[in-house]
Amino acid sequence: QVQVVESGGGLVQVGGSLRLSCTASGINIRLKIMDWYRQGPGKQRELVADITMVGFTDYADSVKGRFTISRDVAKNTVYLQMNNLKPEDTGVYYCHVRNSDYWGQGTQVTVSS
Q1: Is 40 helix (H, G, I), strand (E, B) or coil?
Q2: 100 Cβ partners below 8 Å, 6+ apart?
Q3: Nearest Cα to 52, choosing from 73, 28, 76, 35?
Q4: Dist. CA 55–CA 36, nearest whole Å
């Protein structure tokens, strides 16, 4: 049974930082493209960052230079380091296994101004 579980969300002030974690079970993240999505209030879910099997990364323009996706294959965990947070980064952040129906339950990030 495949599970992905996010953690690390919370309330932070503008300019602050958070690190989200996504721990997977039932799959080997080294063999998958792993995605971080987010859904802001009243907005569609959008792809924020991804990391490929060989470790290549890509980011939405809105977070480039502020967010960093990484992984620890020994822990089967993907991270999203978020720096210089802005109010528009507020939303529920989801971990996803590319080309699958496997999603986490989401973790809330709220950036207050």
Answers
A1: coil
A2: 2, 32
A3: 35
A4: 14
The alpha carbon dihedral of 98, 46, 48, 6 has a sign of negative
Residues 32/53, Cβ–Cβ less than 8 Å: yes
The pLDDT tens digits for 27-40 are: 999 999 999 999 99
Residue closest to 41 by CA, chosen among 108, 113, 96: 108
E strand or H helix that includes residue 57: strand 57-59
Alpha carbon distance 21, 95 (integer Å): 9
Per-residue model confidence as pLDDT tens digits over 38-85: 999 999 999 999 999 999 999 999 999 999 999 999 999 999 999 999
Contacts of 4 (CB under 8 A, 6+ apart): 22, 23, 24, 25, 95, 96, 97, 102, 103, 104
Coil vs helix vs strand at 88:
helix
